[in-house]
Each structure stands twice: as C-alpha cells, then as structure tokens.
Amino acid sequence: MLLEVKGVTKKFGGLTAVDNFSIEIEKGTITGLIGPNGAGKTTVFNLLTGIYPVSSGSIVLDEQDITNNPSHVITQKGLTRTFQNIKLFNNMTVFDNVRIGHHCRGSSNLLGALFRPPSTRREETEMSERTMSLLEDVGLADRKDELASNLSYGMQRKLEIARALASEPKILLLDEPAAGMNPQETKELTQFISNLKDKGLTILLIEHDMKLVMNICKKVVVLDHGAKIAEGVPQEIQSNCAVIEAYLGKGAAKCSQ
Amino acid sequence: MNDIFKNKYLLGVLFAGLLLLPFIAGDYLLRVIIVAGIYVILTLSLNLVTGYTGQFCLGWAAFYGIGAYTSALLAINLKLSFWIGLPLAGIMAALFGIALGIPTMRLKDIYLAITTLGFGEIIRLLLLNWSDLTRGSMGLPGIPAPSIFGISLDNNYFYYYFMLVLVCIVILAMERIIDSRLGRALSAIREDELAAKSMGINTTRYKIIAFAVGAFFAGIAGSFHAHYSSFIDPQSFSFSESTIILAMVVLGGMASIKGSVLGAVILTLLPEALRDFSEYRMIVFGLIMMAVMLIRPQGIWGQSKARTASIGKIMLKAKGGAVKDAVRG
Amino acid sequence: MLLQQIINGLAQGSIYALVGIGFALIFGVLGLVHFAHGEVYMLGAFFGFALISVFHLGVVPSLLIAIIASALVGILVERIVFKPLRKAPDVAPMVCTLGLSVVLQNVAMLVWGSDTKSVPDVISGTVIPFFSAHISTSQILIFAISLVLMLALQYILYRSKLGRAIRATAQNKEAAALMGVNINKVISATFALGSGLGGAAGVLVGLYYNAFYPTMGFMAGLKAFVATVLGGLTSVPGAVLGGLVLGVAENLGAAYISSGYRDLIAFVILILVLLIKPSGFFGRSLQGKV
C-alpha cells in the first residue's frame, strides 16, 4: 500500500467535515473519490496535503507517517496535488511555473545562487531539461514563454498538472482535473492520466465526470456528508443504492431499508 | 525600453560615463550622486523583500539605521576599521532582519505592514532612548572616514568609486538571486503562497532568507552612510525615511532591478533639483506615491500585471463562500 | 496613584477607541487599512482649533462642525483614493493612503507651521476628587462625549436602515448588493462615520493636552490601529475595548516602567497579539476557503 489513511476525522468547531475516513491506495493504481457537492472531498485533500491539521486519525505515505506534516514536507515526501480552482503562478511564464515544481528536488540555496558553482549549474540545466520534457508531454512546449494567465482554461489545467508532475511525486492528487473541459479535452485528459498510471504513477482523483471516473479508476470511493458510504470497483459503485440516493435523494433508488 | 540595455554600444557609453563622472561633474553633483548610490542599494534591498517576495515592509529605515549605528559605534568605541565594520554592519542588520522575519512569517498584507512599521518605530525609539549606547538625540558625531594603511580616504573620488563598486556588487547579487532556485521560490511565494507551499517550498524559511539578505544590503548602505556623512542621529532613520525608500520602490516598479535603480536616482536627484522648494519635498514624495498607484501601479518598470493576493478577496471568500457555492450549484 | 493612572489611561483610551472604531468600520466594510486615518484625526483637531481660537466658537459647536468637516474629508478620501483603486491589488490603496498621509501632514505643516499650537483656556482647569484620585473637567468632557458618540454610533448601526446596510455589507458584500443595497452609498457612509469619529477624537485630544501639531496624527493613528487589532480588526466593540486597554496599559507602563519608552508599549502589545491570538478579542479568524 502506498497510501494508508486510517480513521481521519476533521472537525471545524461543531461541524464534522470528515468523519472517520479510511482508505488504502495501492501503488500504480488510479482511485476515484466521488460524492455530491459539499461531501468533503476537497477537505480530505486538504488534510492529506497538510493544509488542515487532522482532528484525529493517521496518514501514512510509503510507510512514513505524514499526518499533520507541513505542506511542503509532504510534497517533498512524495505527495503532490492540484487545486480545484487552479492555483498557478499567474505572473510567471509557463516554463517557470513548471520549473518551480522541481524546487523540492533541488538543493541549491543562497550560496549556490550567488556563486554559481558547477553543482548549481548542473542542477539548473537538469531542471530546465526536465521542465522542457514535461512541457512536451502535455503539449505546452511551444508556449513556454507565455504568461500562465494568458493560457486558456484547459491549458491552464494541463499546466498545473505538469507543474505537479515536476515535483516527481509518488502519488498525485488531482482535484477535479476535468472541470470546465469539453468532451474532446476530457477525452485527451483521460488518456493522459491513464498514460501517467502506465508509467508507474499512483493517482487519486476527485471528479464529477462519471464517464472519466468509471473509465480509468480501478477503485472508486464515495463520500457523503464527510463519511465514506461505499467503496469498490466502478461497476459496483454504479449500481450501489446508497450512492444513488446520495446523489439523487432518498427514494430515487428504491433501496430496501 | 528593455532594448536600450540590450544595445552593447549604449551600455558601454553609459559605463564609460559612470567611470569618468567624477572628472566631469562638479563637487556638488558628485555628492548628490553618491547619496543616490546609497538609495539605490536601499531601494534594491527593500525591493527584494517587498517586490520579489511580496512581503510588504514599512519599517525599512530600521535596518539602514542598525547598519549605520553598528558601523559607527564599532569605529568610535572599538576603533575598528571601516573595512571590518562594513560587513559587520550588514551582518548585524541581517540578524535583526531574521529577528523580524520569524514572528511575522505568518502575517499577511495589513498585519505585516503594521508590524513592520511598528518594528521600525521600536528601533527608532531604542536608538533615541538608549542614550548610554547611542547618545540618543544628540547623535554620533566624528565617525572616522575610511582609511587604508593609515592613509585617509576621505575624498569624494574614493567615496564615488567605492559606491559604484558596492552598487555593482549589489545589483549582481540581486540578479543572481532572482535567477536561481532561491529567487524563483521567492517569486512563487509572492504569487501564491499556498501554491508555493504545495510545491514543496518552505515559505517560512525563504521569507526569512529574503529579510536577512535585504537587511544585509540595507545595513551595508547604512555603514557607508555613517562613514561618509561622519554624523548620524536617530532622526535620519525615521518613518519618513522608510516612506521615501518605499516611494522609490513603488515609482521604479516592484520586482524590477532596473526600476529600483531608476526610482532611487529620480527621487534623489529630483529634490536636489527643486532645492529651492525643499519644504515641499515630502509632499512631492507623497503625491508621487499616490499618483503611481492611481495611474500606473506597476511603476515605471514593474511587471505589467502585478496581482498580489487580496485580503479583501480572501475575506469575501471566507464570508461569502457559502453564497458563491450556492450560486455555482 | 494607581487609580489616577487608570483614570488617565481610560481618558486616553477613549480617544484611541474613537479613532479605532473608524479603522474597524472601514476594515470591516472594505477589508482595507486607511493609512491616512490618523491625518483625518489631525485635521479634525485643527478644524476644532481654528473654530475655537479664530472664530471663538464654544467647545460643543466647534466639535460638531469639526465632526461634520472630518466626515466630509473622509468621503473625499474615499472618492479620490479608494474608489478608483477598488479593482487594484491590495498594496495600491495601502501605498496610496500612505502617500496621502505624508502629503496631509506636510501640507498641514506648511499651512499651520510645525510648532505646537494651543488654545486659550477654553475648558476650566477644575479638578474633582474621585476616591483617592481626581478627574479633571477635560477628562469628564472626553468620557461624556465619547460615550455620546459611541451610543450614537450604536444607534445608527443597529437601529437604522443605513446601519443594517453597513452591517450587511461588512458581512457579505455580494449578497448585500444582490439584496439591493447601494454599496457605494454604504462605503461613503462608513467613511463618513469613521472619519467623523476620528475628527471628534482629534478635537478632544487637542483640548485635553492643549496641544495641536501637524504630526499628531501619525502616532495616534498607529496606536489606534493597534487598539483595533487588539479588538479583532473588524469589531467595533472590540476597538473600544482595545482602545481602553491600550490607554490604561500605556499609562501604567509609563508610570511604573519608564516614560521614555511609552510609545513602545503599543507596539509590544501589537506583536504579542499577532503572535498569540491574531484575531484579537472579538475578531473571527480569516481562514479562506481553499
């Protein structure tokens, strides 16, 4: 198991946003996290990435406990995410955005910056090469010197994913990567994510696009009101009563009580 | 505008002009330019923290003052040579920079602005009230001029060329920092601190580094100023001074080395040109700050779409997030 | 002695409170700091000074006119600085009001000279014994007028349509606009209220110490801001409490520790608050949604 989440709970004052959430993610798989709006999916991401501290529970990545670690440490340890609302560095170029992703895999600091010893220069060259290679993978190489804010929405999403990939994560958390994309773009994205998995990356993704989820996810976890209400392969989830009720309301699935 | 600097011929002419300046300009103009040089360093140092890293800092004169007093006191009390006092002044200022950076690392925008303002005032009050050390409002007269092998270097030629060397070193250092892993991390912090953290950047550490490096340069400027002017007092390092330096950053453009140089030079030469109207000096500074913000917030050479995280927007999100989500469905 | 210091502190604190309320109102509605608010206080003081010493008006009419004049100045500042910069990054209004404060201070110096002015005895110097200490008439004036003004503000905020509109805008600008609130009017009214109170504070403090000088706004503004932060940045009662606490702390500190470092106390409190509980007494924490 690459990622083991055990009994994670998050309370904001009196409100329980995430309730005793557990999940085990196998290396090299794509797992889907779905649920109606407000179910707590992004909150789970925020807990996994150290943006919020957990109220209780534990998160173990590759046998290392990352519960309540600061965000930057979690990224260094191999867990990177993208954001629902796209948080790119708007006034930096496409190239620079991706290059920043490499930050945690480099080590040159103030002295390196000032004196530029061979080790720093080597590191810079390697970073630039990796950045170009990632940009080519997502098809943004020809726009590398443009400001990130000038890209179209779909391209910005791709850029954010490229930036996340630059941090060489063991597991990538994608928060609604297909949001706002047309069917063609979604198809390309689906293929892209699938390719990432084939290269050995583990992925956990939040999505509302069911076609995408059912297509590439090996396992799907369903969240409603902060609690896990179902877990299984896509076919099971699609016919799961509780899941259908969560999305469509009570009585929609005519489940036996 | 950038193309001017790509023209090597023009750059050469500029450089030659700078080298020959003391022989062309009169004594008075030379002195003004030396002072401009001090402000160039100060402006660059503040720009590193405020422009590049996005940490709005209002008490910058404090580091200038710390550097000046450190160097002056070491020279007067311990008879330490200027050549040792200069770097020590920078280091002392850097230590205070770290001391300021640590408690303020979690603060943003307004909170940070007021806290740094408060810090500036605390330093000024300390310099003013700790008379045993600093002679309070009487200031420190008789700061020895730099000398080498016993020969006094107390002439404008030395000060000018040394200032030129210092400015070049600072500009080179800034350019190297900006174009490095460290510099990119600083820019990322400015653009979106949360995203920066999520990309593995230890924002606390880098903010402190920015403060330390910026303060170091400001301290060096302070040391130079102390030995050049041979007299300092707490009044020279007041909030007005911090405002002037900020005005230079703003006018020239945040996150722009060329902008800082230009801003500092313009706002040093301008009051001199208008010497007959010296009582309007601060008013002009204030009006320039207002005008720049209202007409062209990015300053002369700043990036064209300087967008910083808006506390107003964050508050609206926190309060109105529920409404937004309901509307979005 | 202790009681005296506390009384003095409460008087000074009431002044901080009045100015601090202005910061709280403006920050609550706009989310921005008004760096020239201290200068509005200073202008209010000078209006009062001019009205009393030049036009020989009584204290109360001068105060009222100064309040109105300050309110107008506040609206003017909003129109010139804040409105055009509504879409600009947050540094813009901060830098702009900083510049404005410098301009106002120096213009005042040019117009009135930088020396400290005083008015001939307008308030009698009588002192009334109060337990082991005494209260002066000017202190009574401060307490009385501050109370009246704060009650008036309470009334406006909680019993009038305008007040409801202001509170709604402070909570959720977009929703308020959708409900038909005229945001521009609300913002102008907020500035008018805050600036009017600030101007009143200026007149009161000028009379209390019988000292009017162009740079009086700088320190007072800064300390009032500390009071507002102490109170929770967006909370009006918080600003009041913060102001009083700051006034008392300053006086006690100056009396028992050292008077030279008096001004330091405000900043020490500021740093402590920001380190320990940034949301102050009554503020809410500003955790944005990710």
Automatic annotation (TrEMBL), chain C:
Location(s), subcellular: Cell membrane
**A GO CC term assigned to this protein in UniProt:** plasma membrane
Bilayer topology term: Multi-pass membrane protein
Transmembrane parts of this sequence: 15-33, 63-82, 94-113, 133-157, 186-209, 229-252, 264-283
A Pfam family hit? BPD_transp_2
- Protein's organism: bioreactor metagenome
The family this protein is said to belong to? Belongs to the binding-protein-dependent transport system permease family. LivHM subfamily.
Protein name per its UniProtKB record: High-affinity branched-chain amino acid transport system permease protein LivH
Q: Which GO terms describe its biological process?
A: D-alanine transmembrane transport; L-alanine transport; L-isoleucine import across plasma membrane
Q: What is the lineage of its organism?
A: unclassified sequences, metagenomes, ecological metagenomes
UniProt keyword annotations, A-Z: Amino-acid transport, Cell inner membrane, Cell membrane, Membrane, Transmembrane, Transmembrane helix, Transport
Q: Which GO terms describe its molecular function?
A: L-isoleucine transmembrane transporter activity; L-leucine transmembrane transporter activity; L-phenylalanine transmembrane transporter activity; L-valine transmembrane transporter activity
